[in-house]
Design brief:
The protein has 246 residues and is of the alpha/beta class. The chain is built from 12 helices and 8 strands. β2, α2 and β3 form a beta-alpha-beta unit. The mean pLDDT is 95. The chain binds 2-phosphoglycolic acid (PGA). The site of 2-phosphoglycolic acid has 13 residues, from β8.
Length: 246
Amino acid sequence: MQTKKVIVGNWKMYKTIGESVAFVEKLLPIANRSTSQVMLAVPFTALERTATAARGSQLLIGAQNMHDAPEGAFTGEISAKMIVDAGGRFVLLGHSERRALFHESDDFINRKVKSALAAGLRPILCVGESLQEHESGRSQAVVEAQLKGSLAGISADQLHQLMVAYEPVWAIGTGKTATPAIAQAMHHQIRQQVGSIKILYGGSVKPENVKELLEQQDIDGVLVGGASLSLDSFVKIVDYRANCKT
Ligand code: PGA
């Protein structure tokens, strides 16, 4: 039996509440009849309204970040409990934009993973090497270290609540996708570290390349940024089996 592929949209800092709800309403019938698990990481402001619109459907709504503390004097931050309260079911953690622009360390991300799990929120842990690390042949070591640091103290049982997304930084928003072979090789390495959990690929995923990526043995799904912003291209990705030339 084929296991369900996972298609996650990451909207980053795009879309108002109205735009988000209108998108979700149109996506719902497609997500409901899809053989894949469809998920959307929306801006915090749109979380509650989109989660309400998606309630009872196959579409899962989640957040793009959180703080590790359950509550406290952290101006501008959001906790796992608040995301759950708003209807969020999962959270992206350690996205490369958070690591690079907001200086998030593996240690901080590790604390967030633990807090998300404690609150019943499913973490999608993002890892990936920079262009410089890629060009100097350090990709494997960098990803291995990120996983080790971000997953320190996580039990085998807890690991099964989690997904990992491999996103080579040089492929994010650049139009340069890792070739399916490069992606598969890294996914295979990640598989040795995390076992049978879902491992997603991210970085310039588009309707034109999604099928070949998802055909790789260790690619269980995709994390889609730019191409998840338009309903047309996101639906083509969700319906990748029907829409791609073979
Ligand atoms: P992209 O972004 O699809 O626009 O490259 C992916 C991501 O950052 O999750």
